């Protein structure tokens, strides 16, 4: 096998942060190389330098044995390098065909029919299904990914880079994607897949390069590796990968949701007749393809989403019932009901990036002060306490939270919500973008809340985590509940089926 | 397109690139901003030079024209008062990223309401000023409330809305001036009658009492923004509306409340202008204060205390430009150009406070 | 009938500066730049265009060519607008300043600059600045043999000044550019999603600069129209008087489509001359003057109530793009 890409001693810094240090890597024709590393280990930054998004501070890149300079994505295309980004880089209001030819050099006019024809040829060859005239905003996540991959192939890429391509797919869609990638490999292309999922590495790749803290620590042929050895390489020490899970104790109903229906501004149902019950001392997982109603579900439990019909009934410790549907967050709080929410968008919704930690603590507490004045002393004390308890790394309580690392930001947010001593805790994608240590801190905190008798709802995308952490899992499909299953007995494949098909499996309700 | 070739490594490095700065010290920040203002004045000097004037003479005359004599000084302060008060009002709205550029209209409505009572009400002397004061506040506030209602309900673009209301308010005053409020005793150009003595603000140290109002208002707005729950809510709404909703803040209500206050303060400006300086209402009542005050608010980074300095500074420019209009035959619009330059430079210099340029190192 | 023809032709003349401003701003916003400085750029275009003609006539004297004078007015008016767009681009694209405030600053500076130049010309002319009849006739209605003379059609289609045809050509060109050409596709991508455009190898900075500067130039032409045609080649203090702002609002009404902008501008042009063709007893002039502004407000409200996925502002409008943001 011939070497097509060689990276030598690449270093890249952002301000004071070194994203890559002296990284060396090689990729061969006709192989699938897995680039393994946890969040923040510098995998994506490294690949962005291959695809011309970033420019390295120092180091060399060789393509087919020649040293090259990649200054822009166009340079990368010219060298046959194409990258499918984790966050799709597609223009919503344009069609698939328009997106596919975007940025390509050519004549004055865009020949849309010609493009469509060529796209269909490529789809036939690799077995994609795509409508070139469909607008991106009408597409599902996996359709968008297909567009991205075709876009790269259309440009004649010989070296394909895929950044966390499986994060948003169902297990069945993942199998399909892997088939396509294997076809490309047989087609003598070089495929690089960025991932932090060990299982995928083992199933798909020929070799694996492990990144840790910006450095490439090891490259091994996949058959010589084990899940345990890869995990140790990734984290740098022996690690127990299992999340501890206790049996729920005295689970009683806390929040009864029935027939919950929400509409988006265009009148489409984002949630459609959703019914389930959250119980104390239990973690309820929420799974589904991205955009199946998870966000709306979380927000409608916390009063942030206007509810079209249905009921959200809170059951107090004394058994008294309170109807929450139609109340605003402040009205819910006004009734003495504490529902805490850790939203997906931490700095855009849960916290204010430009404000300091004390002012962010005040988001929850400022209302409690009497009179017209704000109280800064109590939240300040709370912030200091939180820093100590969760070992938050920060220049001080007066520094804007956006300057903190992702893990510390999440600790501030989750910590603040837990400090409000909630009886229901709703968390959405709490470990997205976090490194392993921070992720496990989050899992521990959630388990601690569960043991304290809090009803926890956990919306997540990593099925492995959902299966290990949760007691029950609610699966959403197109805004409807396609099943509520026992997390201890269900398999990943079964959840995958539920994510795409509505059926009536409700074995654990 | 040129194919990337075989080159030595550094050849392709961009010559200069941009990285984020952690933070700069307060002193450095002031220095950079001072340099920016200086740069703008230099650009103005170049303009004067191109016109064949000696810029040093012009700036000197602007300085003496605005600060040289007691009369000039009081005139400068008189110009600064409406700028300061309006900037305080605009600042409240800008802090929540509500782009209220309707101060002109809010000033006009406040001035009109105050004028109504001054001209036609027959409210006995001692109470008249109080009535005018509250009428102006209410009228300005309500005029400011209109775009906020639509913003909070349908997210209607407030920038254009507030601006259109300026023109509508202006036409309204024209209508009054040319129609029902026109003073029949005056021949020639239609105008509205002068106020009686009872409707005029008293003077303190040679300038109408409005400057005391303005300074008190600075303190009130400062405390309101920094120490009250309302101020905190405004900050959060300005930073992020989703976060405000998440924290249980009724964003619509904050829009309404703050825009009423913003408009009311601008309405107060209207009262100060008609009752303290012009003693009548006309279509020229604002003199562009509503726009110039945007500059004051932004240059002060929405800090009420700093607004005192910048309102005086801009007033000096305007007064100075008036002075050199006669001596050098330079149109007084020169002040607007200088103000524009200063804004450009201040806007531009923020970049150097947040980012730094890294130049390519020489390859040995 | 006669009255109607007069009304329509007057509406077209009133619509022309609005359409220039709207087209310029559409092009600018398509690149993701929300330039609120249209009013300022129009002022600059008006004053600089007029000065070009005026100074040319002064320099040449009696033998001045009306054609050359008009060309100079158009070219320099356009360049003045380009300068406005350039200042705005440097501030927002390169120096990443707040777009709203940068646009307001451009308006403040442009209005000042326009009036300053206009008054300066007046001082030079010893009274008020005005171009000669040669130039004025170059900006007056066309007389195309065989066409302009036709009944009704001739007056409705073939009797306007050349800038009316220029603005229509500009609109048609923009429709083609945005929908058919490769650069148009790239520009739309830049305005919708600059990060994606960037990753696809499109030079975001270049597109933003070009679109904003050319858009500014087109706005400047609107100014030229105001000073050379509407004010018959004289400087009138504050002659733009809010037309730039209405243009910005028209962009929203037209839903970022040059084709709809033509209709919108005609509608507003018609509203603004209504007073002269539909006078109603006892309704003061000011009520008529309010109509365009009031209509703008109503349309703003209407479009905000009715949100649409397709007809919306380019998604990145108002937000500066910075690649290494992390």
How does this structure look, described?
The complex is a heterotrimer of chains A (509), B (364) and C (326). By secondary structure, chain A is of the alpha/beta class. Chain A has 2 domains: 3-235, Rossmann fold, CATH 3.40.50; 280-306 and 328-500, Rossmann fold, CATH 3.40.50. Helix content of chain A is 33%, strand content 26%. Chain A has a 6-stranded mixed sheet with strand order 6-7-8-3-9-10, sandwiched between helices. In chain A, helix 12 packs across helix 13, helix 13 (377-390) crosses helix 14 and helix 14 runs parallel beside helix 15 (436-451). The termini of chain A are far apart. Helix content of chain B is 70%, strand content 4%. In chain B, the strands form 2 sheets. Chain B has a two-stranded antiparallel sheet. Chain B has a two-stranded antiparallel ribbon with strand order 2-3. Chain B has 2 domains: 22-53 and 332-354, no CATH class; 76-329, Orthogonal Bundle (ABC transporter involved in vitamin B12 uptake, BtuC), CATH 1.10.3470. Chain B has helices spanning 26-50, 55-68, 70-95, 103-121, 125-154, 158-178, 210-227, 229-239, 241-246, 251-278, 289-299, 304-328, 334-354; strands at 16-20, 203-204, 207-208, 355-359. Chain C is mainly alpha-helical and 326 residues long. Chain C has helices at 2-30, 38-60, 66-94, 99-125, 133-138, 153-157, 162-180, 182-192, 194-199, 204-230, 243-253, 258-277, 285-305.
Task: List key phrases describing it.
heterotrimer, A: 509 residues, alpha/beta, Rossmann fold, 2 domains, six-stranded mixed β-sheet, 17 helices, 33% helix, globular, disordered C terminus, C: 326 residues, mainly alpha, 13 helices
Structural class of chain A: alpha/beta
Number of domains of chain A: 2
- Categorize the overall geometry of chain C: globular
Q: List the helices and strands of chain C in order.
A: HHHHHHHHHHHHH
How many beta-strand runs of chain C? 0
Query: What is the CATH class designation of the largest domain in chain A?
Result: Alpha Beta
Count of helical stretches of chain C: 13
Tally of DSSP helical segments of chain A: 17
Q: What is the rounded distance between the termini of chain C?
A: 65 Å
- Strand order across the largest sheet of chain A: 6-7-8-3-9-10
CATH architecture of the largest domain in chain A: 3-Layer(aba) Sandwich
* Proportion of beta-strand residues of chain C: under 5%
Low-confidence stretches of chain C: none
Radius of gyration of chain A: 24 Å
Question: What percent of residues of chain C adopt helix (DSSP H or I)?
Answer: over 70%
- What structural category do the secondary elements of chain C indicate? mainly alpha
């Amino acid at each position: 096998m011939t070497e097509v890409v060689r990276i030598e001693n690449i270093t890249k810094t952002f301000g004071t942060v070194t994203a890559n240090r002296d990284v060396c890597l090689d990729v061969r024709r006709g192989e699938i190389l897995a680039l393994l590393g946890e969040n923040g280990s510098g995998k994506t930054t490294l690949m962005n330098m291959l695809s011309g998004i970033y420019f390295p501070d120092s180091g060399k890149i060789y393509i087919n044995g020649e040293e090259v300079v990649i200054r822009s994505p166009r340079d990368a295309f010219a060298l046959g390098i194409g990258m499918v980004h984790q966050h799709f880089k597609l223009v919503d209001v344009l069609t698939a065909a328009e997106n596919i030819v975007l940025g390509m050099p050519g004549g004055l006019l865009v020949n849309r029919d010609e493009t469509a024809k060529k796209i269909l040829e490529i789809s036939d060859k690799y077995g994609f299904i795509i409508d070139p005239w469909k607008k991106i905003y009408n597409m599902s996540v996996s359709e968008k990914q297909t567009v991205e991959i075709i876009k790269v192939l259309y440009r004649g890429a010989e070296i394909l880079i895929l950044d966390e391509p499986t994060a948003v797919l169902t297990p069945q869609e993942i199998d399909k994607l892997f088939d396509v990638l294997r076809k490309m490999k047989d087609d003598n292309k070089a495929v690089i897949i960025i991932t932090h999922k060990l299982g995928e590495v083992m199933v798909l790749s020929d070799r694996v390069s492990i990144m840790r803290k910006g450095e490439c620590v090891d490259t091994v042929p996949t058959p010589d590796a084990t899940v345990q050895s890869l995990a140790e390489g990734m984290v740098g020490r022996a690690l127990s990968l299992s999340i501890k899970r206790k049996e729920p104790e005295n689970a009683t109903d806390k929040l009864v949701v029935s027939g919950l229906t929400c509409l988006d501004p265009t009148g489409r149902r984002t949630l459609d007749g959703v019914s389930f019950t959250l119980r104390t001392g239990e973690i309820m997982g929420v799974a589904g393809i991205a955009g199946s109603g998870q966000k709306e579900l979380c927000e409608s439990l916390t009063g942030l989403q206007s509810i079209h019909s249905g009921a959200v009934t809170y059951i107090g410790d004394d058994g008294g019932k309170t109807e929450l549907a139609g109340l605003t967050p402040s009205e819910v709080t006004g009734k003495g009901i504490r529902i805490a929410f850790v939203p997906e968008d931490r700095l855009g919704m849960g916290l204010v990036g430009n404000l300091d930690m004390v002012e962010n603590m005040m988001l929850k507490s400022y209302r409690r002060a009497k009179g017209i004045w704000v109280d800064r002393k109590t939240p300040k004390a709370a912030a200091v306490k939180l820093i100590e308890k969760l070992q938050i790394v920060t220049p001080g309580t007066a520094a804007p939270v956006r300057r903190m690392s992702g893990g510390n930001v999440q600790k501030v947010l989750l910590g603040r919500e837990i400090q409000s001593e909630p009886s229901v805790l709703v968390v959405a994608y709490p470990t997205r973008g976090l490194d392993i240590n921070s992720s496990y801190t989050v899992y521990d905190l959630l388990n601690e809340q569960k043991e304290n008798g809090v009803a926890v709802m956990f919306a997540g995308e990593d099925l492995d985590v959902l299966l290990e952490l949760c007691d029950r899992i609610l699966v959403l499909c197109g805004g409807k509940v396609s099943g509520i299953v026992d997390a201890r007995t269900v398999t990943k494949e079964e959840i995958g089926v539920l994510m795409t098909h509505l059926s009536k499996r409700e074995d654990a309700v | 397109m040129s194919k990337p070739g075989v080159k030595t490594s550094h050849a392709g490095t961009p010559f200069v690139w941009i990285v984020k700065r952690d933070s700069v010290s307060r002193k450095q920040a002031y220095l950079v901003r001072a340099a920016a203002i200086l740069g703008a004045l230099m650009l103005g000097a170049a303009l004067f030079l191109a016109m064949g004037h000696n810029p040093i003479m012009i700036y000197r005359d602007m300085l003496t024209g605005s600060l040289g004599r007691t009369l000039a000084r009081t005139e400068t302060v008189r110009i600064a008062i409406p700028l300061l008060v309006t900037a305080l009002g605009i600042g409240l709205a800008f802090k929540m990223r509500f782009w209220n550029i309707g101060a002109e209209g809010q000033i006009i409505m406040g001035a009109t309401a105050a004028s109504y009572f001054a001209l036609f009400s027959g409210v006995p002397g001692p109470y008249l000023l109080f009535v005018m004061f509250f009428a102006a506040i209410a009228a300005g506030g309500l005029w400011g409330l209109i775009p906020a209602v639509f913003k909070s309900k349908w997210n209607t673009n407030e920038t254009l809305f507030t601006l259109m209301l300026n023109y509508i308010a202006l036409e309204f005053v024209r209508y009054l001036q040319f129609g029902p409020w026109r003073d029949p005793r005056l021949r020639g150009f239609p105008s509205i009658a002068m106020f009686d003595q009872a409707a005029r603000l008293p003077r303190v140290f040679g300038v109408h009492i409005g400057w005391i109002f303005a300074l008190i208002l600075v303190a009130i707005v400062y405390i309101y923004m920094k120490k009250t729950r309302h101020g905190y809510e405004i900050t959060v709404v300005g930073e992020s509306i989703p976060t405000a909703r998440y924290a249980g803040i009724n964003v619509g209500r904050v829009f309404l409340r703050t825009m009423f206050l913003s408009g009311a303060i601008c309405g107060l400006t209207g009262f100060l202008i008609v009752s303290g300086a012009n003693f009548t209402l006309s279509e020229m009542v604002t003199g562009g204060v509503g726009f110039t005050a945007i500059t004051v608010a932004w240059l002060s980074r929405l800090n009420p205390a700093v607004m005192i300095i910048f309102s005086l500074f801009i007033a000096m420019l305007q007064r100075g430009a008036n002075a050199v209009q006669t001596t050098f035959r330079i149109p007084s619009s020169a002040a607007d150009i200088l103000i524009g330059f200063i804004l450009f430079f201040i806007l531009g210099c923020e970049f150097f406070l947040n980012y730094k340029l890294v130049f390519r190192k020489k390859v040995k | 009938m006669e009255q109607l023809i007069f009304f329509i032709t007057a509406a077209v003349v009133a619509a022309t500066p609005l359409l220039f401003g709207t087209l310029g701003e559409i092009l600018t916003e398509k690149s993701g730049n929300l330039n609120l400085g249209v009013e300022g750029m129009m002022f600059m275009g008006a004053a600089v265009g007029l000065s070009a003609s005026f100074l040319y006539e002064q320099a040449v004297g009696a033998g001045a060519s009306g054609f050359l004078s008009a060309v100079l007015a158009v070219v320099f008016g356009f360049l003045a607008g380009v300068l406005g767009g350039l200042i705005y681009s440097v501030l927002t694209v390169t120096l990443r300043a707040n777009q709203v405030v940068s646009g307001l600053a451009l308006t403040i500076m442009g209005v000042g600059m326009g009036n300053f130049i206009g008054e300066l010309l007046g001082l030079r002319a010893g009274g008020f600045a005005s171009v000669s009849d040669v130039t004025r006739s170059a900006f007056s209605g066309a007389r195309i043999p065989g066409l302009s003379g036709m009944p009704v059609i001739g007056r409705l289609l073939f009797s306007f000044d050349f800038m009316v045809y220029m603005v229509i050509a500009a609109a048609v060109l923009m429709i083609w550019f945005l929908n058919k050409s490769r650069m148009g596709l790239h520009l739309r991508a830049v305005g919708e999603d600059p990060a994606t455009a960037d990753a696809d190898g499109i030079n975001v900075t270049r597109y933003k600069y070009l679109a904003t500067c050319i858009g500014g130039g087109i706005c400047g032409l609107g100014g030229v129209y105001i000073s050379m045609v509407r004010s018959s080649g004289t400087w009138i203090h504050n002659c733009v008087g809010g037309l730039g702002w209405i243009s910005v609002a028209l962009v929203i009404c037209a839903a970022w489509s040059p084709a709809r902008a033509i209709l919108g501008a005609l509608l507003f042009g018609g509203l603004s001359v209504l007073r002269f063709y539909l006078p109603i007893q006892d309704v003061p002039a000011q009520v008529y003057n309010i109509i365009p502004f009031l209509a703008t407000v109503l349309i703003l409200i209407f479009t905000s109530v009715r949100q649409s996925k397709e007809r919306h502002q380019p998604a990145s409008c108002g937000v500066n793009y910075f690649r290494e943001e992390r």
